[in-house]
């Protein structure tokens, strides 16, 4: 956590304007729900908390450290609700945020396609260079996912170990599909659920594609079609690195302290290998 004393005052509106400049809401998918969820624009902000998910634990954490703004990746109100009464799950969260004086801001798919964005942070964690979009947005340097190169070829087994060491630990861990001895150097990544981009990883000439939430049948068919090897990590773990990168960007732009939550909000809590 860093921050310097200054006469300058940073407000919720200041941070909102900055976030919407870097991650314009119109970049988000049509089904997404991004932007300011609650919080008055004229409220002063001296500390920002960053988390992947807006859940009771991360809201309580933000209140405990005295944050005035909680920046999250996953939307709290992605699906419509007819009430935010405090006896409902999401309503209780909204009430706690407001009563604690914490603004909530969401940057989701608009942060996924940004450059730099969610997948850039993931790629850097893995040591990839020469990055380019996996699924480019026409006539821009933006796009979903990234394709890059490792410093030298390594086996799929070694790359899987690299990913496990680079990403925050989860019960889900990291698993791979393909020949463990296969050499890989060109790597495609996409933070979050990415099985809809399997074909793009093949077209990009990737040797291996790392993402989250891979399913049995798409993986099986992809491998049968001689596609790249696959590495499947926890959804939360593939998106968490962006928080550190975004916290550093905010500190460089504003005289505020930032705290990245390392609270594991991945829903899976146990894992045992079969014998």
UniProtKB/TrEMBL annotation:
A divalent metal cation binds at residues 73-74, 112, 235, 239. Gene3D superfamilies: NIF3 (NGG1p interacting factor 3)-like. GO terms for molecular function: metal ion binding. InterPro entries: DUF34/NIF3 (IPR002678), DUF34/NIF3_sf (IPR036069). Signal peptide: none annotated. One of its GO terms (cellular component) is cytoplasm. It comes from the Bacteria. Keywords: Metal-binding. It holds the Pfam family DUF34_NIF3. Belongs to the GTP cyclohydrolase I type 2/NIF3 family. Homohexamer. This is GTP cyclohydrolase 1 type 2 homolog. It comes from Stackebrandtia nassauensis (strain DSM 44728 / CIP 108903 / NRRL B-16338 / NBRC 102104 / LLR-40K-21).
């Amino acid at each position: 956590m860093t921050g310097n004393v200054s006469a300058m005052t940073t407000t919720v509106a200041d941070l909102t304007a900055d976030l919407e400049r870097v991650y314009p809401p119109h970049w988000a998918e049509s089904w997404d729900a991004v932007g300011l969820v609650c919080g008055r624009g004229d409220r002063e902000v001296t500390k920002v908390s960053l988390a992947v998910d807006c859940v009771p634990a991360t809201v309580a954490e933000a209140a405990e450290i005295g944050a005035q703004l909680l920046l999250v990746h996953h939307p709290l109100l992605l699906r419509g609700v007819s009430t935010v009464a405090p006896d409902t799950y999401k309503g209780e969260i909204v009430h706690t945020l407001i009563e604690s004086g914490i603004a909530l801001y969401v940057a989701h798919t608009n942060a996924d396609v940004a450059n730099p964005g969610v997948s850039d942070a993931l790629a850097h964690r893995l040591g990839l260079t020469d990055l380019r979009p996996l699924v480019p947005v026409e006539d821009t340097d933006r796009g979903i996912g990234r394709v890059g190169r490792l410093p030298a070829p390594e086996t799929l087994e070694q790359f899987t170990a690299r990913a496990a060491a680079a990403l925050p630990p989860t019960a889900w861990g990291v698993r791979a599909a393909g020949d463990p001895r296969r050499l890989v150097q060109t790597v495609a990544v996409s933070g979050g659920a990415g099985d809809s981009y399997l074909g793009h990883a093949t077209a990009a000439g990737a040797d291996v594609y790392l993402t989250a939430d891979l399913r049995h049948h798409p993986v099986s068919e992809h491998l049968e079609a001689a596609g790249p090897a696959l590495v499947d990590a926890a959804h939360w773990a593939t998106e968490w690195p962006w928080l550190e990168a975004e916290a550093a960007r905010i500190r460089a732009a504003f005289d505020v302290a930032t705290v990245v939550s390392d609270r594991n909000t991945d829903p899976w809590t146990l894992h045992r290998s079969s014998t």
